[in-house]
Amino acid sequence: MANRDALRAFQARLASRLQAARSAGVSASWLAVEAGDGKYLFPLGHAGEIFPWTTPQPVPYTAPWFLGVSNLRGELYGVVELASFADGGQPQQVPEAVRAQSRLVALNELLEVNCALLIDRLVGLRGAESFVEAKAAADDAPVWMGHVFTDDSGVQWQEINLQALSQQPQFLSIGA
Prior knowledge:
Blueprint: H1 2-24, E1 30-35, E2 38-43, E3 47-52, E4 66-72, E5 75-81, H2 82-87, H3 96-99, E6 103-107, E7 115-119, E8 121-126, E9 131-135, E10 145-151, E11 156-160, H4 162-166, H5 169-172
Parallel strand pairs: 2-11, 5-7
Antiparallel strand pairs: 1-2, 1-8, 3-6, 4-5, 6-7, 9-10, 10-11
């Protein structure tokens, strides 16, 4: 119950910060998250609702990064572990107590894919003013990887184009 209240409070703070940013003329462009060793930026227009961790129902004969399906507000969502999908590795075995701190970020319903990405930590909202450098993704990077941004601490953040990701055959083909 405490986790649910904390999530509601976080979402309320996030919504109020977004509203304040809009009224102040500052545009928050991304939702910053951490997954595995990666730091990612989701365009706000592509990201949907944020849910607390819900253990998905496993689906047999699927890719290792596809964790199964979860009932989120009465709808079934496929759950993808972002870290293992992005780096092509195996999902990490994380104790349930640690996993309880994770979140599921649903793709915006306009993308027409009932999918939620498992992330380890929400960092918050970021705008262009949060970064000192931006460079295009590497030539061999997947098409869903956008620019790489560097903040004033020297930390690099990979932009993920969730719309492009949701249309990729390797993302849509969950079969093993």
